[in-house]
Write a structure and sequence with these properties.
Chain A has about 750 residues and is mainly alpha-helical. Chain A is built from 28 helices and four strands. Chain A folds into three domains: about 1-55 and about 225-455, no CATH class; about 55-215, no CATH class; about 455-758, no CATH class. In chain B, strand 1 (about 1-10) and strand 2 (about 20-30) form a beta hairpin. The chains are: A mainly alpha (about 750), B alpha/beta (about 250).
Chain lengths: ~750, ~250
């Protein structure tokens, strides 16, 4: 039976098993279908009740003396009410109904949609004269602070500035910002004085025969060009992204625990481990179940929330009538963004739960991990974050930003590609870890060992190569560390080319790409020489490396030149790299060569073609491993435009290592490639030579290979490749029985080769 | 055939010290034979059986199943083993039929053949009444019959049974012992661990006595009785255990 149909059987069985579980159904169906609408409508009604109470509130105002009280009542509040009634053409007692109608009309005209309901209410009391009660107190501030009155009023200056006087009255409204009624009362009172002020100003202007333009030379209004769909998309994108993250996790947690730690607790894990199935197949089947349940749960939640919003009246509260449209075409996008989210969280959850021996233990592990996973989600929700630079590969953050952008109708194809691919790498690493941990002796049998011993050095079995899970995990870790280090180096504002910058750059390379994998290899007891393919090179291998290193730069130039015509680099990117290009021109040739050709070439080969390739080839086969590592190599160069180029170079270098069983031909080719690319634009480098050879366009100064050079480079590359064609007898330490695809991701392939003494 | 050669398992303790659970054990089980592994609690029987079935990796020594090393040919060897323990769980929300179909796929049995095999096992073990009920609703005996059917789904030449009758009533017990005997008669090599001495007496051709991780005696029933000068297996067992534990012997 082939692997796919086995995984699909495992998937179907686990799916049926999970769906028959009442607890899953409760978490997945009942909660979203019943609880959310009930909660939302309940809170909505409570909110409405509160708002209507606030509306009916009689506001109490504290004043310091009878004189002020009299003034406020007879000269300010009563006339305001009377004017309102007169304007409405009604007696004062019929005013409230009229006010209500007037408010609705004003709301519709102002179109301040999207604002919170409370804000709208506050604006409304600002526009109308509500009922007041005045209290004379000895200490106005104290009266408000103790809650005796809602608001206090302090006056200095003329009590009543007249149209003919030019005086002003300074009024201080004492209010308690922590009390909503106090806020409302202050807002209402402020409205009364604003209206009065307006009238005074209007009359003063009239007396002077001036118009309003005199005091308002600039009349400012805002006109938003956002279509209702876009506005809706931006709001809903944020809400939906958050809902999706939370709901995918909520839906996936239970099956993830049930299918891993649950198996152990029920005693079925032992039986399963006794079956002749690779662990990676079991985990793959379980992973698909957890991911699909996570997605299903998120969709149900979203439908339920959507239904509540549209049908239950919550939409009116959130968006007001007609202000925002939620475009239906965004619905398929929800499904698209769900996939990476579900893949990511299911893989992480499975990895965490595979470590646990019981339900309770799994729950203890899951909660902190998920809280940590939510932090990048929150980063993605911050306003202003865009899908660019390192955020493209920041796990979870990138998905959240992508979701928001998709809802706003901005389809960023490169972004989708980056997010999908980087998420796949992280998920693959997590699934690899899950497969490694699932069914481990220490997890399987409580009496066999403590879980802590899983990570103790003495219990790692000596081996010639790291496992695929270790390789994938380290690749993911290096990605993230690289992201954080690059960010902090950039923020540190070091001048490009300064000794500090060079030291930071070199240290990052050495620590991250050479020292870290070396340390991990030593700790996990894998043999350094085989892991990093450090065996001495053969002459033919070096010759192949030489041919490839001497020719690849010409082809790289062709690619860059073509790309400049078809898909030019964005100006921002050019601007960002300009200081670094200048730095490369400024530094001495030996410095440039050491820091930007030799050191990166060596460190990158150690990590990518050394640790990563030797770990992955066990499981993925030679071709798959070379391609994946080449892609990861391309990704660390952080430029989607350069990705095809760097990935192609990665393939050539991977081929050299696979064929010759040694890293040195690849190091040679890599150093040559880097060095020549750096030297072709330098006067004291290869530029004069290339100019003489007709390589440099005299007008545009563009470096482009003439046809004979192009043919020459292609021939040299072919010779390099021909040298890598296998003769009858295999060469190198990997040659025998290596790299068959398939097999157990972590176990079988490794066991078939003899372990070595550490 | 099962060949256990100088098998040792050392477990790390959380404090960094080590515990030798199985110490240099060797024995072999031939086709048509039921080999009884006998020993007090914690003697290392279960650890031995787990290593034989490929669930635990030996610290040293090796296990050959029909000539193939368990560690190096994990998948191929597991296909030849039917493994069953007293506390093997079942998927509570699946029916015995679904479980058998599932394991048939895991053991790579083609669909038509799997259907025939399941029908055969259901007949033999009298599972008709409950084959379509969820396992959560089954009695202990019905569960254990389902488990036996699961272990035998691939018709493996080797059976490893760790206390298969624990907690069963007399009727289920008899049915299962009868079934094990019929499997041995059909040519399977059966490695049986149990505390029920009468079962060992009735069924096992040879008996290995494990104590403190070591195999302290190996013989057929009569041989053990002769060796210890006792007339009953239980006395022979106590005699051997005491002889290997000076404190108890005093």
């Amino acid at each position: 039976m082939n692997r796919f149909s086995r995984i699909s059987t495992i998937w179907r069985k686990e799916f049926a098993d999970t769906l028959r579980d009442r607890r899953t159904l409760v978490a997945m169906v009942l909660v979203p279908m019943v609880l959310y609408p009930a909660l939302m409508l309940g809170s909505l009604q409570a909110f409405e009740l509160q708002v209507s109470k606030l509306k009916q509130q009689e506001y109490s105002i504290a004043v310091a003396s009878d004189e002020v009280r009299h003034w406020l009542q007879t000269r300010i509040l009563d006339p305001d009410l009377a004017r309102f009634a007169a304007a409405a053409g009604l007696p004062a007692e019929e005013l409230p109904a009229a006010v209500e109608a007037a408010e609705k009309e004003a709301d519709a005209q102002s179109g301040d949609s999207g604002r919170g309901r409370l804000e709208t209410e506050e604006a409304a009391v600002h526009r109308r004269p509500p009922p007041y009660r005045l209290e004379v107190v000895s200490d106005v501030r104290l009266a408000v602070a103790t809650g005796l009155t809602n608001v206090g009023l302090l006056v200095s200056g003329d009590l009543l500035p007249t149209p003919d006087s030019s005086g002003a009255c300074q009024i201080t409204l004492v209010m308690d910002k922590a009390e909503i009624r106090s806020q409302f009362a202050a807002s209402a009172l402020e409205g009364v004085f604003k209206r009065l002020s307006e009238r005074v100003v209007a009359r003063r202007l009239q007396d002077l025969h001036l118009t309003r333009d005199y005091i308002e030379p600039y009349q400012i209004t805002q006109l938003s060009v956002a279509t209702p769909e876009k506005l809706g998309g931006s709001i809903i994108g944020q809400v939906v992204a958050l809902i999706l993250v939370v709901m995918t996790i909520t839906g996936a947690i239970y099956p993830a625990i049930d299918l891993t730690a649950g198996e152990r607790e029920r005693g079925t894990l032992e039986t399963l481990m006794a079956a002749p199935v690779p662990k990676v197949d079991l985990i793959a089947g379980k992973f698909v179940v957890v991911a699909s349940i996570g997605m299903l749960s998120a969709v149900l939640n979203l439908l339920s929330i959507g239904g509540t919003v549209y049908l239950g009246g919550l939409g009116d509260v959130l968006t007001k009538e007609g202000g925002i449209t939620i475009p239906l075409r965004t619905l398929p996008l929800v499904l698209v963004t769900l996939i990476p989210l579900a893949v990511m969280f299911s893989a992480v959850l499975l990895a965490v739960c595979s470590f646990a021996r019981s339900f309770k233990e799994a729950q203890n592990y899951v909660m902190p991990v998920m809280v940590v996973a939510l932090i990048p989600a929150v980063v993605g929700l911050l306003p202003g974050t865009e899908l660019e630079g390192p955020l493209l590969i920041m796990p979870v953050t990138n998905i959240v930003i992508l979701t928001r952008e998709l809802f706003m109708g901005e389809i960023n194809r490169a972004g989708v590609l980056w997010v999908t691919l980087s998420t796949c790498i992280y998920a693959l690493a997590a699934v690899g870890v899950a497969a490694k941990l699932f069914g481990q002796e220490a997890v399987l049998f409580a009496d066999s060992a403590s879980i802590r011993t899983l990570l103790k050095r003495k219990f790692f079995k000596p081996s010639n190569w790291p496992s695929a899970a270790q390789a994938l995990l380290l690749m993911a870790v290096v990605y993230l560390l690289n992201f954080f280090i690059q960010q902090s180096l950039f923020r540190a504002g070091l001048a490009p080319g300064s000794p500090e910058h060079l030291a930071g750059f070199a240290l990052t390379l050495v620590l991250l790409l050479a020292a870290l994998p070396m340390g991990v290899a030593l700790y996990t007891r894998v043999r350094i020489s085989t892991t990093f393919s450090l065996s001495p090179p053969r002459w033919r291998g070096l010759a192949a490396g030489l041919c490839i290193g001497l020719s690849s730069w010409v082809l790289a130039l062709v690619w860059m030149s073509l790309q400049e015509r078809i898909l030019p680099l964005p100006p921002d990117f050019k601007e960002a790299v300009a200081p670094y290009e200048q730095m490369l021109q400024r530094l001495s040739v030996p410095t440039v060569l050491f820091f930007f050709a030799i050191l990166p070439a060596f460190c990158e080969e150690m990590f990518f073609r050394g640790y990563a390739l030797s770990g992955l080839r066990n499981v993925m086969g030679k071709t798959g491993a070379v391609l994946l590592v080449a892609f990861a190599f391309g990704m660390t160069h952080m430029s989607i435009q350069r990705l095809p180029l760097t990935a192609a170079l990665g393939c050539l270098l991977g081929l050299l290592v696979i064929r010759w069983g040694s890293i040195w031909p690849a190091v040679l080719a890599h150093v040559l490639h880097n060095s020549i690319i750096l030297l072709i634009t330098r006067e004291e480098g290869l530029l004069p030579l290339l100019k003489r050879a007709g390589f440099v366009d005299p007008v545009t100064e563009d470096v482009f290979p003439p046809l004979p050079w192009l043919i020459g480079a292609a021939v040299l590359l072919l010779i390099g490749l021909a040298l890598c064609v296998k003769r009858s007898r295999p060469v190198g330490q990997f040659a025998d029985g290596f790299g068959q695809s398939g097999g157990d991701l972590l176990g079988v392939a490794r066991q078939q080769r003899p372990a070595v003494k550490d | 055939m099962i060949e256990v050669q100088e098998l040792t398992k050392v477990f790390p303790n959380p404090d960094g010290s080590e515990k030798t659970a199985v110490d240099n054990i060797s024995f072999r089980v031939l086709p048509h034979e039921i080999y009884g592994l006998l020993g007090p609690n914690g003697a290392g029987k279960t650890t031995t059986l787990r290593m034989v079935s490929g669930l635990l990796r030996p610290t040293s020594g090796r296990v050959l199943i029909n000539g193939k090393d368990v560690t190096n040919h994990e998948a191929a060897v597991k296909r030849q083993i039917g493994y069953l323990t007293a506390n093997t769980g079942l998927y509570q929300r699946l029916t015995p039929l679904e479980i058998l179909e599932y394991f048939a796929v895991l053991y790579d049995i083609p669909r038509p053949q799997a259907g025939r095999r399941i029908a055969e096992l259901v007949d033999w073990l009298g599972m008709h009444d409950f084959i379509k009920l969820r396992c959560g609703a089954l009695s202990t005996g019905q569960k254990q019959r389902t488990n036996i059917a699961r272990a035998l789904i691939a018709d493996p030449p080797v059976l490893i049974l760790d206390e298969p009758t624990l907690g069963l009533d007399v009727l289920s017990n008899r049915l299962i012992l009868h079934f094990i005997q019929s499997q041995a008669d059909a040519g399977k090599a059966v490695l049986l661990s149990t505390h029920a001495l009468d079962e060992i007496e009735k069924m096992c051709g040879r008996i290995g006595l494990i104590h403190d991780g070591r195999l302290i005696a190996e013989n057929d029933l009569e041989g053990l009785k002769r060796q210890t000068g006792q007339s009953r297996l239980s006395d022979a067992f106590l005699h051997l255990v005491h002889a290997n534990e000076p404190l108890l012997a005093d």
